[in-house]
Amino acid sequence: xxxxxxxxxxxxxxxxxxxxxxxxxxxxxxxxxxxxxxxxxxxxxxxxxxxxxxxxxxxxxxxxxxxxxxxxxxxxxxxxxxxxxxxxxxxxxxxxxxxxxxxxxxxxxxxxxxxxxxxxxxxxxxxxxxxxxxxxxxxxxxxxxxxxxxxxxxxxxxxxxxxxxxxxxxxxxxxxx
Length: 177
Prior knowledge:
The chain is rod-shaped and about 235 Å long. The mean pLDDT is 87. It is built from one helix and no strands. By secondary structure, the protein is mostly helical. It is a single-pass type II membrane protein.
C-alpha cells in the first residue's frame, strides 16, 4: 500500500493501533487483577499450608503423646491383668484349700461321731462295770462279814478246843495222879 498524505499513517491504522492498545491495556489490567487475586489466594494458601503444617506437627506431637499414653496404659493393663490372674489363682487356691479344709472338717466330724459313739459305749461299759463292782463290793462285804463271822466262830471254836484241851489235860493229869 502506498502512503498518501506525506508520512502520516492512515487513520484506520491509528484507530486499529489505538483499539489494540486499549485491548492490550484492558488485557494487561485484567491479567494484572487476576494475578493480584491469584497472588492473594496463593498467600492465603501458603498461610493455610503453614497452619496445616503447624497443626500437623501439633497433631503428630499429640499422636506421639497419645501413643506413649496408650503404651503406658497397655503396660498398666497388662500389669493389672497379671495381678487379676494372680488374684484369681490365689482365690482358686484358697477355694481348693477351703475344700480340703471342708473335707478335713467333715472327716474330723465323722471321727468325732465315731469317737462319741465309742465314748458312749465305754461309758455304758463303765456303768455296767460299776454296777458289777458295786455288786462285787456287796458280795465282798457280805463275804468279809461271813469270813469275819467264820473267823470269829473258828476263834471261838479254837478257844473252846483249847479250853477243852486244857480241861482234857487237867482231867488226864488228874487221872494220872
